[in-house]
């Protein structure tokens, strides 16, 4: 089932068009990787999907359907709740870990202490931080390591129970071990969530994703199962890009 | 060789200027301390002025209370408006033109001499609105005086908040108002409170606006916000201006300076606390 359907999407900042006539569908409960050279519009594509693009001064034409309905027909808050996004640079709020994870649930009306504690515990377990930090919930989140911060931010996005998780280069600032942690976590999460992940790391895309989209200059060049894209690219530009990085 | 010489001349120059300022400040403080410390005791701090001419005996309690009340009203009035303005400019105003216009107005406001503000307060609040010389007239006039000061600082603080952090809040589907109150204010609270305390220090030391809008010579502790008040700078001005008691004047000056010192120390402590939180 396609949870997102993107039809003839054009996105521009002012007069500068960044995404050009892009159409693709995102399948539910799969991991879709988006690859492409720097500046090709990957982040722009992600921020368009939950309408964060407006906050960055961009606008779009075309149609995006979330569960068969135009995203513009949803309340923007609801849409953003359903389609969570985590940015490349981790952005923990400068409060305690506990407060980071209860910030959004409190907004959605959960006041009960036990319920909040339960949410925090569940989330920490999901993102694999429970054993590391469950004793230090009052620690300032900004004091966590880079990898822990990134996992906390992914956790924070999960506290509002989204259906889709958009990740913009979640591992770009992390070492191997942290990257492996996050990849493992994403594979686990994909059982319950639909994940779209932008990555510069082709072997990462290969390791974790079911589908891969290759974007060049705002155009979707190739979109297929990850296996086909990497082993059997139909377009020469895809072949070159994949080879270029490897060789 | 020449560069080296320039370098050392410059260093000496900087060193001299710094020590000069330091010496002057310490000298003023010591001078007032030595001359004023003698007259400070329980009676001076906690009783009303007495004697003939009045003020030559007794204390300055009404002036201390008056000044603190004026400061509190001024800070409350100014900070509510200043913070709202800053929020509007940073998070809601989308037109560059409007922004520039408001900035221009605020800049002009900060340039208005305090005696003119006093005159404005006198005409509008004391006469026109019929508040009379009172705590409320003086508080609001002082509030207008410190408004630009608080506004500029709060705006700067709000602008410096990491945009990415704010965006991640919106990305959770959380409203702007919730983001403001639960994320941005808690992040900026130390800076905002520090701006308000410093502005309070500025207000408590101002004499001109108070003379025209709030102070009546040797008024007692005010009973309501519509009562006239005495204020420390005005008290000081009367004592010296009328040649009532130089000794008491130094005492009053010392109390005023100590209050300012406490305000500044609070602001410094807040700054430290903030640094530690980061
Ligand atoms: N807020 C903005 N205003 C104007 N132009 C922008 C803005 N954000 C991005 N762009 C431009 O849009 C183009 C695509 O940017 P985008 O961030 O989507 O690329 P990307 O594929 O994510 O690159 P990277 O891999 O380096 O993150 C770039 O040319 C960039 O300069
Ligand atoms: Mg990007």
Brief sketch in words of this structure:
The complex is a heterodimer of chains A (247) and B (278). With 247 residues, chain A is an alpha/beta fold.
Keywords for this entry:
heterodimer, A: 247 residues, alpha/beta, Rossmann fold, 6-stranded mixed β-sheet, 4-stranded antiparallel β-sheet, 10 strands, 38% helix, globular, B: 278 residues, mainly alpha, MetI-like fold, two-stranded antiparallel ribbon, 11 helices, 2 strands, binds adenosine-5'-triphosphate, binds magnesium ion
Structural class of chain A: alpha/beta
What's the mean pLDDT score of chain B? 91
Question: How confident overall, as mean pLDDT of chain A?
Answer: 91
**Secondary-structure-derived class of chain B:** mainly alpha
Structure commentary:
- The complex is a heterodimer of chains A (247) and B (278).
- Chain A is α/β, with parallel strands linked by helices.
- Chain A contains 10 helices and 10 strands.
- In chain A, the strands form 2 sheets. Chain A has a 6-stranded mixed sheet with strand order 6-7-8-3-9-10, sandwiched between helices. In chain A, strands 2-1-4-5 form a 4-stranded antiparallel sheet, with helices on one face.
- The mean pLDDT of chain A is 91.
- With 278 residues, chain B is mainly α.
- Chain B has a single domain, classed as MetI-like fold.
- Chain B has helices at residues 2-36, 42-46, 61-92, 96-111, 114-128, 135-160, 163-171, 176-204, 208-213, 232-241, 246-277; strands spanning 49-50, 57-58.
- At the A-B interface, helix 2, helix 3 and helix 6 of A face helix 7 and helix 8 of B.
- Adenosine-5'-triphosphate binds at residues 13, 16, 18, 36, 38-44, 56-57 of chain A.
What is the fold's blueprint, element by element?
The complex is a heterodimer of chains A (247) and B (278).
Chain A: E1 2-13, E2 16-27, E3 31-35, H1 42-49, E4 58-66, E5 69-70, H2 76-82, E6 83-86, H3 97-107, H4 113-126, H5 130-133, H6 146-158, E7 164-168, H7 176-189, E8 194-198, H8 202-208, E9 211-216, E10 219-225, H9 226-231, H10 236-246
Parallel strand pairs in A: 3-8, 3-9, 6-7, 7-8
Antiparallel strand pairs in A: 1-2, 1-4, 4-5, 9-10
Helix pairs in contact in A: 3-4, 3-6
Chain B: H1 2-36, H2 42-46, E1 49-50, E2 57-58, H3 61-92, H4 96-111, H5 114-128, H6 135-160, H7 163-171, H8 176-204, H9 208-213, H10 232-241, H11 246-277
The structure holds adenosine-5'-triphosphate and magnesium ion (MG).
Residues 42-43, 168 of chain A line the site of magnesium ion.
């Amino acid at each position: 089932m396609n949870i997102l359907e993107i039809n003839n999407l054009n996105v521009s900042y002012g007069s500068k068009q960044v995404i050009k006539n892009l159409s693709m569908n995102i399948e539910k409960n799969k991991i879709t990787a988006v690859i492409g050279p720097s500046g090709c519009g990957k982040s722009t594509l992600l921020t368009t999907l939950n309408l964060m693009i407006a906050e960055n001064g961009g606008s779009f034409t075309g149609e995006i359907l979330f569960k068969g309905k135009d995203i513009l027909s949803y309340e923007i808050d609801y849409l953003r709740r359903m389609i969570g996004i985590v940015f490349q640079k981790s952005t923990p709020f400068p409060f305690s870990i506990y407060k980071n994870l209860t910030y959004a649930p409190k907004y959605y009306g959960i006041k009960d202490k036990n319920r909040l504690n339960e949410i925090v515990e569940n989330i920490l377990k999901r993102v694999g931080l429970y054993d590391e930090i469950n004793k230090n919930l009052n620690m300032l989140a900004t004091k966590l390591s880079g990898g822990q911060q990134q996992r906390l931010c992914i956790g924070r996005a999960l506290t509002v129970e989204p259906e889709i998780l958009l990740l913009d280069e979640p591992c770009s600032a992390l070492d191997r071990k942290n990257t492996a942690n996050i990849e493992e976590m994403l594979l686990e999460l994909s059982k319950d969530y639909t994940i779209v992940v932008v990555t510069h790391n082709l072997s990462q895309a290969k390791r974790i994703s079911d589908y891969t989209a290759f974007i060049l200059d705002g155009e979707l060049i190739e979109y297929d199962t990850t296996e086909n894209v990497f082993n059997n690219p139909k377009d020469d530009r895809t072949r070159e890009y994949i080879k270029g990085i490897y060789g | 060789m020449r560069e080296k010489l320039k370098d050392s001349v410059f260093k000496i120059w900087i060193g001299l200027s710094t020590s000069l300022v330091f010496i002057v400040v310490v000298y003023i403080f010591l001078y007032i301390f030595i001359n004023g410390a003698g007259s400070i005791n329980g009676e001076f701090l906690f009783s009303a002025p007495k004697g003939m001419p009045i003020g030559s005996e007794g204390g300055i309690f009404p002036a201390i209370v008056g000044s603190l009340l004026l400061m509190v009203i001024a800070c409350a009035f100014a900070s509510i408006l200043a913070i709202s303005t800053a929020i509007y400019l940073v998070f809601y105003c989308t037109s560059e033109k409007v922004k520039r216009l408001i900035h221009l107005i605020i800049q002009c406001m900060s340039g208005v001499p305090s005696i003119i503000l006093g005159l404005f307060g006198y005409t509008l609040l004391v006469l026109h609105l019929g508040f009379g010389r009172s705590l409320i007239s003086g508080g609001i006039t002082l509030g207008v005086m410190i408004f630009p000061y608080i506004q500029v600082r709060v705006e700067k603080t709000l602008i410096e908040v990491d945009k990415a952090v704010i965006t991640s809040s919106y990305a959770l589907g959380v409203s702007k108002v919730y983001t403001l109150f639960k994320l941005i204010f808690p992040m900026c609270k130390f800076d905002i409170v520090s701006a308000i305390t410093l502005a309070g220090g500025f207000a408590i030391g101002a004499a001109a606006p108070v003379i025209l809008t709030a102070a009546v010579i040797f008024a007692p502790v005010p009973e309501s916000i519509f009562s006239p008040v005495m204020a420390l700078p005005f008290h000081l001005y009367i004592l010296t201006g009328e040649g009532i008691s130089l000794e008491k004047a130094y005492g009053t000056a010392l109390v005023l300076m100590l209050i300012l010192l406490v305000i500044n120390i609070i602001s410094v402590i807040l700054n430290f606390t903030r640094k530690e939180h980061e």
